[in-house]
Amino acid sequence: MPLIAIVLAAGVAAPTDAYLDQSRARWEQFSKQIWGYAETGLHEEKSAKAFEDLLEKEGFTVTKGVAGMPTAFVATAGKGEPVVAILAEYDALPGLSQKAGEPKKDPEKEGAPGHGCGHNLLGTAALAAGVAANRARIEQKLPGTIQVFGTPAEELLLGKVFMLKAGSFDHTDIVLTWHPEASNQVVTRPRLALTATDVEFFGKTAHAAAAPWLGRSSLDAVELFDHAMSLMREHIQPTARIHRTIKNGGLVPNVIPDYAKIQVWLRDQTGAAVQEMLERMRKAAEGAALGTETRAKVTVLASGRDPINNEVIGRTMQKHLDRIGAPKFDEKDQEFAKAVQKEVGAEPSGLSTEIVPFGPNHGGTASSDLGEVSAAKPLAELNVVTRPMGTAAHTWGQTACAIHPLGLKGMDVASKVLGATAVDFLQNPKLVSDAKAEFARATKGKPYQSPLAMDAKPAVY
């Protein structure tokens, strides 16, 4: 039996565990700092700088402003193969500000952003794991390279997709990531594929009272299009989702608008299914334009496919999750969790303290740009409890939990699992080759192709 298997079977601490225990206060403080910044996608200036500065102090070479995004970076330490990457995210969500310590909705600043997806925890655990793995690499004189990817604007499905397009992952062998959740598990269920679009209509202005017959209303086109999409919902798969918001419906009622825009997001289990919906949506836009004598334009803003979860990497993560165990929540943590659950109408069952065994269909369905990374490189994702059972991300409740001790305890477990897993792949070349072989089978050897147009530029939408 290989040494790594003996160590794991015996439950012996990984070389990264002691350092992460000793430096825990450092990472908790860093996470609180990022929580306080709460910057939305492509505007994470303070957050990205904090990550970059710390990594440089730890001896990483940091390439900044990657792929045309000022808040994207790649930090590298070591040389040669294998190249093990850990993904960090740090973007917040609009409108989810929340006062620390409050188990009910109470914005710190009305309308301001907040970490309603826990990316302050996600990014910090990735950072801590990368630093810990690199220290272990140096101490044990291990071959290989540690990378920490600073991937902005995950909520817009932009950062990783543009970094892939720019070649940032070209030399990476293994990719590790995690996400705050309500369960402790390794993800084996594919997230939903997603394509985000703008549908614009162009008409003719006119005085709405004096000469409306001279106008052609782009808002009429949006309404007709939206009705067509509502009817389409009956004729799509139960796994599919269609979301929309009207971004521009004209300026004043007494001017017939010559421009209107509706943003539509399409989701389903596979990228192929989403593409089919997209083609149907294009027909609905053309029909609405024909019926209102306007012109339609459909623009793909971002796209992320359903992830390919690598079992070799996932099982390695699972061994460390089993060894480290669930976050050790105390009575105050459980009381806070139950108070949040009561506030949102969920069963007051508190926080999960169980480890889900490795198996099929574990994980949520929310879309992520990590799906694109998984189509280019072997990748696995971990979930660790950072919010109560029965509650959702993208809410004030997750923002509250992301600054609470319960969230920080989940972050600590995640950093240990990621750090130890990274060292395993530095120590064991066969693990790397096995993960790559599985990836080759899953992708049938097809090279990665970006969903982005050649001239696509990252932008907030």
Describe the structure.
By secondary structure, the protein is α/β, with parallel strands linked by helices. It has two domains: 3-190 and 307-443, 3-Layer(aba) Sandwich (Aminopeptidase), CATH 3.40.630.10; 193-303, Alpha-Beta Plaits. The protein contains 14 helices and eleven strands. It has helices at residues 3-10, 17-22, 24-37, 45-57, 119-139, 159-165, 218-232, 271-292, 311-324, 331-344, 370-374, 396-401, 405-427, 429-443, and strands at 61-64, 73-79, 83-88, 144-150, 174-181, 185-186, 193-202, 241-248, 259-268, 295-304, 379-385. A seven-stranded mixed β-sheet has the order 1-2-4-3-5-11-6. Strands 8-9-7-10 form a four-stranded antiparallel β-sheet. Mean pLDDT is 96; it is low at 1-10.
